[in-house]
Amino acid sequence: MYDYLIVGAGLFGAVFAYEAKQRGKKCLVIDRRNHLGGNIYCENTEDINVHKYGAHIFHTSNKAVWDYVNQFAEFNRYTNAPIAIYENELYNLPFNMNTFSKLWGTITPEQAKAKIEEQVRESGITNPKNLEEQAISLVGKDIYEKLIKGYTEKQWGRSAKDLPAFIIKRLPVRFTYDNNYFNDTYQGIPIGGYNVIIEKMLEGTDIKLGVEFFENKEELSSLAKKLVFTGMIDEYYDYKFGALEYRSLRFEHEILEQDNYQGNAVVNYTARDIPYTRIIEHKHFEFGQQPKTVITKEYSSEWAVGDEPYYPINDQKNNEIFKKYKDLANNEGDVIFGGRLADYKYYDMHHVIQIALKTVEREFQG
Fold it and tell me: pTM of the entire structure?
């Protein structure tokens, strides 16, 4: 008899299993996939750690979380500095003085601010009714048309005029020559990839992979006193209030017979007529010198039940449905829900660790 059956071998499940083991508890971790790590899993191809489910860059300003994750791996000094390509022109992201200099030839912050203010004023938009108007009212027409419009429409699969304004409440604009995408104090990639972290967390814990929980729910649940569920909360309740909606992703991985394809780990393609949103070149996450390279084209796609869920669509309709599931979950005595799918919320990795540790604290207090 196990103390906990943990459904999902991703970051939340691994942190919970590790902390439970430290407290003398016995856990069984299961996952429907044939590997550990959930979406942070890396597959070694041509001696390159390939981020199989999209780019994952660890970043946080929470020193406790940074110290915690550094128990399990050494991190390199990788800094996320993506580049955007629009019609064969390169721009730095996030929007900063390098971006503005390329767009307009501006040199000083005052010149860049004046240019943005002029375009915002010319737009005449005072009460934005959709995402397009909201973006133009914040950063003007040039930045919107070259760096926001096409990328956003590909991400959401619809026209920016048909998307609500609240999706872009604000846009990060920096009047410094700083290409570091994140503002966080700590940032890096674990040396050897994310598998190192998950494997260390789950060392000594019983694991079963390729197991579909819902095909054998009762029997599996009977193996443990309590269940930790990190999957989709609506699926757990058999979609009784309807399916929560997501955007999904599709990846095309390719091995190239060259040592350097694009010179950067992440390059966004912001034109609407290019079907993928970005190309990831994985070796640059760890400053690799391998003779070959692996690239991944990332496509945003519509989601249906059975597809891989990535980004929750947290509009009013879905949030109201989620609240009904959450109310049921709150009344469960022996089931703990956690992680982005159970919470129907987009989390970065540091958020997942923080929430998992808080869950552990609540579970084992006293």
Answer: 0.94
